[in-house]
Specification:
alpha/beta; seven-stranded parallel beta sheet; 9 helices
Length: 282
């Protein structure tokens, strides 16, 4: 059982729907009989995604939109188009993101691009679509794709971490606002994937590592948890259990509570202390 908006005839919008988690989700929504709007860049990627969905859901209505979510006017035009056609959007998977790598002083020149898409663009999509979803009066669900990197902050890609930490804060605020609106039928959830083998994460790999989940596994887990009241959809994978995630998250919060050095899990004076603490049975 999953969320009731995932139903035949309802409208789903998936940003970053041309590959990875977005494509896997769009496929599942199409299989459920939803009208699916895939939003991504590059016509060839969109065409390939539509063809992929047609293999398992040949009767589904699948629309494709080559839209830069970092462009406010383009997002407004997309929302106007879809709400003009259907009057409502029932499900928004706010999933588009890039990960070209980054460093703290931006010598790669990637910080602006990452924040433009992953943070500003994703927030803009949620704002523009979310406001219209509420106004339509139809039941609705906004799922924002975050990341464990935006919670535990592993060193190595600060722009990505900042973007996903910002999305966590925004989505929490979004759900708080929605739940306090009288008569509001729209809610928000935060998807927190684990290690997923996608074009975004594979790097130089040519085969899926044994510990990584597929996008389909991640989406199936998401769909199951959407049938509960959980806001934080914290996904495990083949390497990391929920218990390990909980310890990493608790330790990260403890840096502030105990005033340890930031990112103490990787600090020369604290790394072994974290490992010893994490190894203790619950």
């Amino acid at each position: 059982m999953t969320h009731p908006v995932i139903a035949e005839g309802n409208i789903a919008v998936v940003t970053g729907g041309g590959s990875g988690i977005g494509l896997a989700a769009a496929t599942r929504f199409a299989e459920a009989g939803m009208v699916v709007a895939i939003v991504d860049r590059l016509p060839e990627r969109l065409a390939a995604a539509k063809a992929t969905i047609a293999e398992t859901a040949p009767a589904a209505t699948v629309l494709t939109f080559d839209t830069d979510i970092g462009d406010r006017d383009a997002v407004e035009a997309l929302a106007n188009d879809l709400f003009g056609r259907y009057g409502a959007v029932h499900l928004l998977l706010d999933n588009a993101g890039i990960q070209p790598g980054s460093d703290i002083f931006d010598t790669r020149g990637t910080f602006d691009a990452v924040l433009r898409t992953n943070l500003v663009g994703a927030i803009r999509v949620a704002q523009i679509f979310g406001e219209r979803m509420v106004a339509s009066g139809a039941p609705g669900l906004v799922v924002v794709t975050g990341s464990k990197q935006g919670i535990t902050m592993p060193p190595g890609d600060p722009a990505y971490n900042v973007s996903k930490a910002g999305l966590k804060a925004f989505t929490e605020a979004l759900q708080h606002d929605l739940r306090n609106r009288d008569g509001c039928r729209v809610e928000a959830r935060l998807l927190i994937p684990g290690f997923v083998y996608t074009a975004l994460t594979k790097g130089d790999r040519t085969e899926k590592p044994a510990g990584a989940w597929t996008p389909e596994q991640t989406v199936d887990f998401m769909l199951e948890r959407l049938g509960t009241e959980e806001f934080y959809i914290l996904c495990p994978d083949g390497e990391v259990t929920r218990a390990i995630d909980q310890k990493r998250i608790a330790w990260t919060a403890g840096d502030i509570i105990e005033n340890r050095p930031p990112l103490s899990r990787w600090h020369k004076d604290w790394a072994e202390k974290f490992k010893a603490w994490a190894a203790k049975p619950d």
